[in-house]
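Contributing: when you submit paired examples, paste them exactly as shown. First protein:
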Amino acid sequence: MNVRRRHISGIAVTAAAAVGLGTLSACSSDSSAAGNTDKFDVVASFYPMQYLAEQIGGDHVNVTTLTEPGQEPHDLELSAKQTAQMGEADAVLYLKTLQPAVDEAVGQADVKTKIDAATLTKLEDHGSVEHDHGHDHGGEEHAAEEHSEEAHSEEEEHALDPHVWLDPVKYAEIAEGVATAFEKADPDNAADYRKNADALTKKLADLNTAYKDGLANTDTKVFFTNHAAFGYLAERYGLTQEAINGLDPESEPSPARIKELQDEAKADGVTTVFYETLVSDKTAKTLAKDAGLKTDVLDPLEGITDKSKGDDYIAVMESNLKALEAALGAK
């Protein structure tokens, strides 16, 4: 159960005030306007969902968010007012399993259009950090044995990784699904939703091309991060993510783990340890100092703050690409 909790926590932090960004751009965090406006009222659970709603909905939508900038989405508790307002919205857009309180409220809310982003693309199991680093249960045979014994608790062992928005291709798949849902729910404006969605998916396709080209030829394919937020991104572009703290950005790695990372940095030509703007950089900086590495920011889009290198999803992802190119020695 621990592993699952850690996994979701890491995911959630990744997603965290991600909302902050949209809050600045569209609707302010005042959820008093969540429903009953003359626009198509959409409640988004956290920033990556909010960004999609704003980009696709354009002038026709009124978007509000449930997660304030800086809030940890997984532990979000909804007020009675927020829950009631959800029931007044025309649509709710969320990512199931990321925020249990939201899942529960959505289940109870009388909202005609409920859009679960997790159903619009394929989520994958990127495993726990122990499995990622080969610390399995004593070999494949034993692991297979355990797998059959514990199939029932597989979800607890490894929750599916919801960090899909950090892969532009998967994010575009979700955008397509959101557009289709908007078109169906608000047919009067369907043509505009389709046009806006096409413009967004073009931006995401360009972003994907920039990543593919920028990371195609590098000195190393391995990067160190504070926690395991970038599994989809690494998989998409042929990279290997090594997380200092695994799935929980607040945990302290063991001395053995630090030693392992130091050895790996030498073996794989790793130059940089990445940390996040909204999570303590203490561990990353300690590892970097001990191993003679640099540090830089790789932003899982938890939210836009004064420290963010960009003011929306695309800008921050472009900044992440520059940081990866520098760290990996892109040609």
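Second protein:
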Amino acid sequence: MNEKQSALMEQVDTPSLLLDLDIMEKNLQQIAAFANEQQICWRPHIKTHKCVEIAKRQIALGAVGVTVAKVSEAEVMARAGIGDILIAYPLFSPMKLKKTVALLPLAKVTIAVDHPRQAEWIQQFLAESSVVLDVWIKIDSGLRRCGVEPGRETVDLAKAVSKHPNLRLTGLFTHAGHSYAADSIAKIEEIGRLEGQAVAESADWCEREGILIKHRSAGSTPTFRYCGRVPGITEIRPGNAVFFDAVQVGLGTATFEQCALSVLGSVVSMHGNDRLVLDTGSKSLSLEQGAHGNATVKGFGHVVGHPEVFLSRLSEEHGIAEIHSATELTLGDRVQIIPNHACTVANLFDSYVLHRRGTVVGEWKVDARGKVQ
């Protein structure tokens, strides 16, 4: 740990969520540059950071809007002045639809559909109003979660949606989350290419049958640089790439030097030469070790500058680490831990502690923390 890092550690209580602004800004600039190079749009998913200030910086760098997972996240973003929002999650609840419609004076809101019955149900909800909701069809490009099959099944749903007067079909989108189970960059590249083709070719199918598809959106963090090059794709939606994390490093899509988010912890207990305990348990780091079949990480976070320390177990308030070789760490010392999954960890904290080159420069609220509805 250098002197500047030491100074930072002394200013902040533990556990805290640290955000390196220099690294984050560089990450965002690289996404924006790629989108500009490919002449496509960029609609980042804010479920990673859940922060109004970060969303505004993404918009300032050229993002056309944001993607959210929940209506409650959309409410936070719309009320903060974000004017174009995709809710990339199926909606059925009348309560959620009522809240969505209430946002229309504040922002353009697009909803996701992946079943004819869902479209019919939304139409019934809107039938007595003059509201017309923009709709994108979700395509399953291999994750086997939500979404219709590419090609004919997409066309059939597009025809069904187009029959409803209160729904306006304007796009197709997908999420290649199965890329997180890839065992090589070559495999990620293949998944990304197929992801882009699933959307672009399905859009072509629709247009051959007279259904105009303006927006063709794809792009997880591992795949956006590959699907974004597929002819016909108009938009990418990486979320995690704002921060990156240990999973992305394991996949080979980032390095630890590109990881902007870390958890600051303290050594609170030591036992001989083989075990120490940090104050960063599952309520600070989460128990996640990677979604969608990912197997690239071991343990529960990367302890920066201390390869001899392996974070092997978490309880709620305790992070138990094995000491694999001699360490200089002792009681009261502080460490930075790059989390396995930045998205789930950000949701555990009320705020980010902002720093540049070891100096604390402010704090941002995690505005949509806990917004799950």
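If you have annotations for the second protein, write them as plain sentences, like these:
The mean pLDDT is 95.
The longest strand covers residues 261-271.
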